Amino acid sequence: MTGKRILLFTTSLILTVAVVYFFALPSPQEPTLPAAAPITLSRPVNPVLGRLIQDYQKEFSSLMQIAHTPGAAIAIVKDSTILFIRGYGVKQIGTRDSINEHTVFRLGSVSKPFASFLAGILVQDSVLSWSDPVTNYVPSFALKSPDQTKSLLLKNVLSHTTGLPYHTYTNLVEEGQDLSLLLSQLKDVNLSSDVGKQYSYQNVAYSLIAEVVKSATGKSYETEMMERVFKPLGMKDASIDYATMMSNANIAFPHVVRRGQMTSARISNTYYNVSPAGGINASVHDMAQWMMALLNTREDVINANTLSQLYTPLVDAPSKNRRYRQIEPIQHSYYGLGWRVLHYPTDTLLYHGGYVNGYRSEIALNPKENIAVCILANAPGELADNGIPLFFHMYRQRRDSIHLWDKNHRIKGTPLQP
């Protein structure tokens, strides 16, 4: 090795070590109370990406303070690597019990893309087909129109194109009614459109997929989720019921604003009765494992073709979180199978948000860039609303530099090396 090559190698090694060390330092703007969970790095860091995440940490901490969010957790994943994972703040306001990467939150409607993920696995295993009529599996199910009942396919259930009015019977979900009773009452509801024609967000009708799964497999939806998703992906903190949530010693408590003050609230059992729509509990470590699968790194669980089916737009749907417009102008927004799909002039983002019982969650991924982000918070507000759009805005600004560094430091077919 020549002296010049030795010098270049040594300089590159020093730079990489310095970046990793710099990246792991706590931000001076982060809250001093309480101590945050350690950062996990899985491979040598692209220094441009490392500086981006370092800068983003400062912005994230500022958002927490502005929103008065008691506690949150975030994970950023690229390809099969967890670039960043961390807990912030406290599980319950007025305490010093800190959030870590295994602290469990309720996901709310981020449970919906889990439902389509499980259904996708059953489709690739030839247990289900997206074009199967619902009545093939649940013969007793009926909409008000017999013809529309026959037209209702599995893909309509998971894309909110059932023809039912917006949020049909969500009020009864919150009253704790049993899913089977809720589904039986849908036959009394006047349809707002023909099946498959219009997007209309649902919780009760979406949860019809649980009855389909049970009929097709002979096992409960919850059991299938545990066996086909949580266990294979190593989601050891995840569950789909109230009892397991309450028996866990490492949970975040929900918070709401009362009389202008952030206040701790009781963990309720609402929405566990519609588990595909809003019943999953998980830690940000669990979400990181799932995001890696969503980025097509777990072919043993779900393959690229199935993921493509989940991400394909099926119906026009407005973007629920207007902050995503800050990244760049949105050309069109859709709903796929359990995912909101945003088309930008130069990119596509997939995302879903959730709110339940004082918990707020948000997840988004860019399949083209193979990067995904999840934020879990124990209070509603600006943190989850703004946090992910802000990250992708910052990423877009530095994307060319990130790609250039990767191109210059990656030998084709081999991983990054210092």
TrEMBL record:
* Annotated SUPFAM superfamilies: beta-lactamase/transpeptidase-like (SSF56601)
Q: Where are the transmembrane segments?
A: none
Gene3D superfamilies listed in its UniProt record:
DD-peptidase/beta-lactamase superfamily (3.40.710.10)
Domain named Beta-lactamase-related: which ranges?
Answer: 60-384
Q: What is this protein called?
A: Beta-lactamase-related domain-containing protein
According to its UniProt entry, this protein's organism is Pseudochryseolinea flava
